[in-house]
């Protein structure tokens, strides 16, 4: 089941409301959360229903519920997300990278007590070989982790000015953040643009 980034955003708003309140939000509530028009929300909901993600209960303002097909895979214990892959072109600068969603989807077991959020990236660097992460692996990232929740020793993904996805081992003292991998042994920073914590690595064997 492939969803666009905006459809996943709308689905996340709806799913959180169902988890918390037992019913879906109204169109106006979704529009306010996503900062888009009610007409745009209607269009996205129609697409999600057409893809079998939700079903509608007629004559209700909070009419959405998980479809029978969807509930088999979309539960609090399993979550699906598309894999993001690096894209490069001859015209791009050497150190610039871009990641885009592919048609490949991974299913992730959610061990959190509530609905969590994950992304999946194809690793495009050999910078973490000593940590067991190889180029071509799929890194599963828990994205709803706050920076103040990070622990020393966490393997994290961050966004930098030259790349939307880089992996480091994290530690912090009272004054600064320390990042390192096999290429950069010591990188000190005051702040980071955190994508999330890597919770799983998947490898394809051909």
Please tell me about this protein's structure.
The protein has helices at about 5-20, 25-35, 40-50, 70; strands at about 55, 65, 80-85, 100-110, 120, 140, 155-160, 165-170, 175-180, 185-190, 195-200. Helix 1 packs across helix 3 (about 40-50) and helix 2 packs across helix 3 (about 40-50). It is α+β, with helices and mostly antiparallel strands and about 210 residues long. The protein is elongated and about 60 Å long. It is built from four helices and eleven strands, in the order αααββαβββββββββ. A hairpin with a 4-residue loop joins strand 8 and strand 9 (about 175-180). The longest helix has 17 residues, at about 5-20.
Short description:
By secondary structure, the protein is of the alpha+beta class. The protein has four helices and eleven strands, in the order αααββαβββββββββ.
Task: Kindly report the average pLDDT value.
Answer: 84
Strand order of the largest sheet: 4-3-5-6-11-7-8-9-10
Through-space gap between termini: 24 Å
Largest sheet: 9 strands, mixed
Helix content percent band: 10-25%
Strand content: 25-35%
Give the C-alpha Rg: 19 Å
Uncertain runs with pLDDT below 50, 5 residues or more? none
């Amino acid at each position: 089941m492939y969803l666009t980034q905006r459809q996943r955003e709308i689905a996340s708003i709806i799913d959180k409301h169902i988890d918390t309140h037992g019913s879906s939000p109204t169109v106006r509530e979704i529009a306010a959360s996503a900062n888009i028009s009610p007409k745009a929300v209607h269009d996205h909901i129609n697409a999600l229903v057409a893809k079998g993600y939700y079903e509608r209960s007629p004559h209700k303002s909070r009419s959405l519920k998980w479809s029978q097909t969807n509930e088999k895979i979309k539960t609090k214990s399993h979550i699906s997300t598309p894999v993001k892959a690096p894209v490069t072109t001859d015209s791009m600068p050497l150190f610039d990278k871009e990641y885009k969603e592919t048609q490949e989807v991974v299913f992730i077991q959610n061990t959190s007590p509530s609905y969590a959020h994950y992304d999946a990236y194809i690793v495009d660097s050999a910078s973490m070989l000593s940590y067991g992460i190889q180029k071509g692996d799929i890194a599963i990232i828990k994205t709803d982790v706050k920076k103040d929740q990070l622990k020393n020793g966490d393997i994290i993904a961050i966004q930098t000015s030259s790349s939307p996805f880089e992996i480091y081992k994290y530690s912090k003292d009272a004054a600064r953040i320390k990042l390192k991998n096999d290429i950069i042994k010591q990188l000190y920073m005051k702040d980071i643009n955190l994508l999330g914590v890597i919770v799983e690595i998947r490898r394809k064997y051909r």
